[in-house]
Amino acid sequence: MADALTLSWRQYRLERRMFWRNPSAAFFNFLLPLLFLVAGGAILHGSQHDLNRLIPAIAGMSVMSTTFTALAYNIVFLRERGVLKRIRGTPLPTSSYFGAVAANAVTNTVLQIAIVILAGRLFFGISWPREWLELIVFVVVGVVSLASLGVAFAHVIPNFESTAAYVNAVFLPVVFISFYVFDTKSAPGFLRQIAEALPLKPLIDGLSGALVTGTGLGSHLDALAVIALWGVFGLYLAVRGFSWEQSRT
After folding, report:
1. How is 58-69 classified by DSSP, letter by letter?
2. Residue 247 within any structural domain of the chain
3. pLDDT tens digit sequence for 218-236
4. Is 220 part of a structural domain of the chain?
5. Across 51-64, average pLDDT
């Protein structure tokens, strides 16, 4: 166990170095949501009500970008370049490798959430989180759910060249629908039902309760259940469909 933890830590340090040495990954998976935050804050400056809705929405988007998007890209890249196959043939335990990959995604998520909270406090008039327990629970469940969905979704991507098209075909519509339904009460009923059934809108609702309204965890148990169900579904598909081998020769 001690050796496995040591190997996990070394692999985690390697994952961190590789992440920051890849400018495109650092931009799209880490900096892009922050650019949305800056742009949205500039546009909505002076409207505290809109800023109160912007902060949890960007926080939810940050969780999705650092887990679902990042892992879908990374798994496909490593699989199609033969890296996963080579790792499989090394003495590095599988648990140590994937533990480090997961810890890397969690680190990016925590950093993003921290930056969003600080920006909301310093620049947008948002108080410190009102419900820390609710914040922690929704972030943890959201990370597990969206990370497992990212790994599962990587299974259907045939090659690395098409990764951007596949990921954006899911990421952008989910973000658009979830943001639209969260921001307005006049959204069509069918669109609201779709957003409530997807994991991002319930995650934003929970983060809004933790960061802005302070309604407490008990008020968003239904949202938490939706995210958890997606997590169970994602874990099942991630494990069942995982392959160390390239999908093409």
Report:
1. HHHHHHHIIIII
2. no
3. 889 999 999 999 999 999 9
4. yes
5. 92
